[in-house]
Amino acid sequence: MTSIPQEMQNNSSIPKNFTASYVISDCEAGLQAAVLILILIVASVGNGFVGFCVFTHQNLQVPTNYFLVSLATADFLFAILALPFRIYDVLEKYKWELGLAACRFWVWLDLLFCSASIASLAAISVDRYLKISSPLTYNSRMTRNRVRFTLALLWMYSAILASLLLVEWSPDPADIARGTIVENGVCRSDDKIFLTIISVLGFFAPLTIMLLMYFFVFKVAVIQATRVARQQQSLRGLSKKSRKRRTKSSIALLEVKATKTLIILLSVFCICWCPYFIISLISLYRIELIYQLPGWFTKTLRILFVNFLPNVNAALDPIVYTTNNHQFRTVIRRMVRKQRERARGIVSSVYSEGLYTMSESRGRRSSSLRTKSTSAVKNSLTPLPLLNPNHR
What we know:
The protein is mainly alpha-helical. The protein has a single domain (26-341), classed as Rhodopsin 7-helix transmembrane proteins (Rhopdopsin 7-helix transmembrane proteins, Up-down Bundle), CATH 1.20.1070.10. It has eleven helices and two strands. It has a two-stranded antiparallel ribbon. Helix 4 runs parallel beside helix 7.
């Protein structure tokens, strides 16, 4: 989220050793912009492909994957709508020239899509816990209408958080808490209360939900694994109730295996976002700790944890769940197989047409030769004219 650690921007109130760390050359600006453009391409193509797979394949249209589509939608919109502003800011060497309205619009988009992405991850963790804790009743409880209602609530929640940006926290120019402003050529948000609320409700609360849900998931996994291990006898002779219990345990274990992909998503999420928000809170309440750091170190913090990792998260999400999720891998293999078969069909048809053309031309040549030879034979069989009997 661009709005939070803006104390790490060029600001006249920051000591010189901290400000100097953000003076970048044309080469550095071009390199950072090239990396961000690559992230934009991967994020837009990858997340668009995930949505295409879910909506065109019936076996992927399950509640968990609808939450994944919500995550992919947030990352896709972030890449094509919010990330270009970041690329512009980098190319201009962090000198904002588009005015206050564009600055506020950029920060609002950033907050909206990042909050929706994080909230979707939290919803995925809750959905996974419900599916593992009660697998036999999950489908009847988690209907499509309930999933759609939940997704609508998630996006409304994200929109409300982002719209807090539009509140005029203090109209006094002398006040340090004036919301989103453009000062000294820098687009930033500087209200401590607003940024704290965004950090807590937009990141730490969903992160807490995710950690609790996955803790409960593995707790259920341990219980189910122990239960299956004790049931060593054959299904024959078991009562109907015991058989049902064993079926439930087996289903739960299969769902735990499927949870591996979501655990990887959570790990990637924490690596990309945790340093960012920790630095944000430090810059809000103990900025002097950052002032004491060497210039090269603060520059590294900004490039890695502010410009790179939070943005690259949008590109990593589709890679994670298309390479680790069994359903997505199966769909991708089928699509690749169909494309190969189609390509082979095109090549074989072209080859067949070529052979047919060649055989047809050869046939024409042979028929013309036969015609010529026939006419020659006919000419050779034509009787010679009778000689004049008076001729000696």
